[in-house]
Automatic annotation (TrEMBL):
It comes from Geoalkalibacter subterraneus. Residues 1-155 form the N-acetyltransferase domain. Keywords: Acyltransferase, Transferase. It comes from the Bacteria. This is N-acetyltransferase domain-containing protein. SUPFAM superfamilies: Acyl-CoA N-acyltransferases (Nat). PANTHER family: AMINOALKYLPHOSPHONATE N-ACETYLTRANSFERASE-RELATED, AMINOALKYLPHOSPHONATE N-ACETYLTRANSFERASE-RELATED-RELATED. GO terms for molecular function: acyltransferase activity, transferring groups other than amino-acyl groups.
Length: 160
């Protein structure tokens, strides 16, 4: 796991596009956030970790602390190269977020996803990683497309 480099962006765009999980609009937002991380060194809202397999970019995760909360983190984006899916890269990225959150006094990691059938595999992945659906806002994205919020409660040591 390593930090984001500007040279990673073309690979990450390719990954976002080839997963088939994201619309063109969603890819645009993801790329915009990568630009913020790369170009605004004063921002503290987002952090990116990049996973590699055999020296090639295999995926990434974008996450950060939620302002005005105590120990709550949002996982905003996670994407794994289709060629690397099923080999633990996604689990490694999720574990990285949880470890970083714990190290910073994190209590909760939250993420949002769609209720659409095309996100079934994604939701199953989150559930297998120990996340539980805590809320549903019906028709949030568009009629018939609900926003599902998943949460994982972290154990924070006494020393944190």
């Amino acid at each position: 796991m390593r930090n984001l480099n500007a040279t990673d962006v073309p690979d990450l765009i390719r990954i976002l596009e080839t997963t088939g999980a994201f619309s063109d609009e969603e890819v645009g937002v993801a790329v915009e956030l990568l630009g913020i991380v790369l170009n605004d060194h004063a921002q503290q809202d987002y952090e990116v970790a990049v996973a590699e397999v055999e020296g090639r970019v295999a995926g990434y995760v974008l996450f950060g602390p939620v302002p005005l909360t105590q120990g709550t983190f949002d996982l905003y984006w996670i994407a794994v190269d289709p060629a690397a899916q099923g080999h633990g890269v996604g689990r490694e990225l999720m574990s990285h977020v949880e470890e970083k959150a714990c190290a910073r006094g994190g209590r909760l990691v939250c993420l949002e996803t769609s209720s659409q059938g095309s996100y079934e595999r994604t939701r199953r992945f989150y559930e297998q990683a120990g996340y539980r659906q805590e809320s549903c806002i019906r028709d949030f994205y568009r009629p018939g497309d609900d926003r599902l919020t998943y949460v994982k409660r972290l154990t924070v040591s006494e020393e944190s």
